[in-house]
Write a structure and sequence with these properties.
Blueprint (H helix, E strand, L loop, with lengths): L1 H5 L19 E4 L3 E4 L15 E5 L12 H14 L4 E5 L8 H9 L14 H4 L5 H10 L1 H7 L8 E3 L3 H7 L17 E5 L8 E9 L2 E10 L5 H14 L4 E4 L6 H8 L3 E4 L4 H13 L3 E2 L4 H9 L1 E4 L5 E4 L7 H17 L6 E3 L7 E3 L10 E2 L12 H9 L14
Parallel strand pairs: 3-4, 6-9, 8-11, 9-10
Antiparallel strand pairs: 1-2, 5-12, 6-7, 7-8, 12-13, 14-15, 14-16
Helix pairs in contact: 5-6, 8-9, 10-12
């Protein structure tokens, strides 16, 4: 800020109006006016009287508790500007077709007589000194990214994976953040492991009942941490929900499998890559068959997931630049496991006295029958034929008496 007040010729007029020496973040002027640089935060900007607010690169703002911090900050600033009829000035490069920059462009660009002015132009128009060769190389390397970065065009290859309304409809408002395990319910566990340096180490446990997935537990441990200790804690959680296997993404560290093995569990790598897990989950969210806790970080990660259409026609999904998806990955991985298990033919145990009616019990319950007959049945309780039993055994589905889980 000192250079701004003293070094730039066209701003040197500020020197005669200074009230004390400038600091790294503020220039104080006579009359009680302050020119200040602040982080973009909708929390700390409130309660001020603002003459003008210049917001830089709003399309790339990130916040741990909000999916759209640019809109939240804009709403927080407007009352501070209103008292003095102050001015909001937004400057930035377009990115996804979402957020404040896109909304202002969509609603006001090219509208005559509007009180909001939107100016759009490529980088060379605003700065003719830029190297045209460098821009041309960027266009050859990634045309979509170059169109956004250098030509001020919103990206057409990026879209939100899930609509906000769909995510909101899946939230179980008022339910506990974690649900206790229940007898007779088959749970499935997925982890997004981390070595404890950058990403969070996350776990999700859920089940499917009546064709609806419920996330019973989701946790994330943020760095720094000892990954072995966290793996041990998560293994204990998985055992509480009777999960004998833990599935995770293709994390490179061999210690992941070893840490869970030491805790008495089996760790396996998911056969589906992350993008496959995400895309598969869309149909379940869209039909309202997912129930998740009101977890702010999880909801923010779900809202920010980006679906990218490549020139080959294949879609991929990932978090945005400087974002994260650790909890989302664990959740959608657990959803995949639970859905896959629910779609298999399942074996049940029938209990009866003599030749009387059979009382069906889910695996793991402990009734007190006088006589036991073990049979295989379909989802409706109908006894399977020999050919159907052979198919079950061919797919290695559980069929032994006393087997506690249905995940094989």
């Amino acid at each position: 800020m000192y250079r701004l007040a003293h070094g730039e010729p066209y701003l040197g007029v500020l020197a005669s109006q200074l009230d004390g020496e400038p600091t790294q973040s503020e220039i104080r002027l006579r009359g009680g006016v302050t020119i200040a640089v602040h982080p973009a935060s909708y929390r700390t900007v409130r309660g001020r009287t603002i003459l003008a607010c210049i917001a830089d690169e709003t399309a790339y703002w990130r916040d741990e508790t909000s999916a759209l911090p640019d809109i939240e900050t804009y709403r927080a600033v407007m009352p501070s500007l209103a008292s003095v009829k102050g001015l909001w000035i937004g400057i930035g490069s377009p990115y996804r077709k979402v957020g404040l920059l896109f909304a202002k462009h969509r609603d006001h660009y090219g509208v005559k007589g509007d009180d909001v002015l939107v100016v759009q132009g490529n980088s060379c128009t605003f700065n003719p000194t830029l190297d045209a060769g460098m821009i041309a190389q960027a266009e050859r390397d990634d045309p979509e990214a170059a169109a956004s970065e250098w030509h001020a065009l919103f990206r057409s290859d990026l879209a939100s994976l899930l609509d906000d309304a769909v995510i909101d409809a899946s939230v179980g408002h008022g339910r506990p953040l974690e649900l206790l395990p229940r007898l007779g319910t088959s749970y499935h566990c997925f982890v997004d492991a981390s070595a404890g340096r950058h990403d969070a180490f996350s776990i999700a446990i859920g089940h499917v009942e009546h064709e609806r997935f419920t996330c019973d537990l989701i946790r994330g441990t943020r760095p720094p941490f000892d990954p072995g200790t966290v793996a041990g804690e998560y293994a204990a959680l998985a055992k509480e929900y009777r999960c004998r296997r833990i599935i995770g993404d293709a994390y490179a560290g061999e210690w992941v499998a070893g840490a869970f093995k030491d805790a008495g569990l089996i760790y396996e790598t998911s056969p589906l890559p992350k993008s496959g897990l995400y895309i598969e989950a869309v149909a379940w969210f869209n039909r309202g068959a997912v129930r998740i806790p009101e977890h702010p970080t999880l909801l923010r990660e779900l809202r920010l997931l980006e679906r990218r259409v490549h020139r080959s026609g294949k879609d991929s999904v990932d978090h945005p630049r400087n974002g994260s998806d650790d909890l989302a990955n664990a959740l959608l991985g657990a959803l995949h496991l639970a859905v896959k298990a629910s779609q298999r033919p399942r074996a049940k145990i029938g209990f009866g006295a003599g030749y009387g009616p059979i009382r069906w019990q889910t695996l793991g319950e402990e009734p007190e029958p006088t006589r036991i007959r073990l049979v295989h049945v379909d989802e409706l309780g109908n006894e399977l034929t020999a050919d159907q039993i052979h198919a079950i055994r061919h797919f290695k589905l559980p069929h032994r008496r006393g087997l506690g889980d249905e995940d094989g």
